[in-house]
Amino acid sequence: MLVARTGLLPPGRGARRAATLPHRAPPAQPLRRTVRGMTVLRSVSLSVLAAVAEIGGAWLVWQGVREHRGLLWVGAGVAALGAYGFVATLQPDAPFGRVLAAYGGVFVAGSLVWAMVADGFRPDRFDLAGALVCLVGVGLIMDAPRST
């Protein structure tokens, strides 16, 4: 390999010379899209994690109190709700009110999914339409072009 890099092999032998390969800097635009995509992916992941912690915590408290499953369920629910409070602080580039408002839409949709999985709930078309409206609202809140 060193021989090929130094140019000691004849040109017909498949050796590439470093001098014949011009260095081109990658365009800046795709990098911005990649960074933006990673920010969106991080925000979505954190919102899903927050939804699992909050909805799961509330469900555990509900099961402990309303379904008489005991204090262990309630304690686990309180711990999950506490974890939810920390997850929101990990959101990038948004003030508290905006993060919480956008998360509200994720919470609505996530609550329906949780109810379907954990309790066998079957949402009707109005539940689904309402969740869709909330998720569109999340997109507007978090991704609207702003001057700041």
TrEMBL record:
Keyword Iron: no
Membrane topology listed for this record: Multi-pass membrane protein
InterPro entries for the chain: EmrE-like, UPF0060
Residues annotated as transmembrane: 40-62, 68-87, 99-116, 128-145
Major location (coarse): membrane
Domain of life where this protein originates: Bacteria
Protein's cellular compartments: Cell membrane
Disordered as annotated region, ranges: 1-26
A Pfam family that the UniProt record links to this protein: UPF0060
Keywords: Cell membrane, Membrane, Transmembrane, Transmembrane helix
NCBIfam families cross-referenced by the UniProt entry: PRK02237.1
Family statement drawn from the similarity comment of this UniProt entry: Belongs to the UPF0060 family.
Name under which the protein is recorded: Uncharacterized protein
Source organism of this protein record: Angustibacter aerolatus
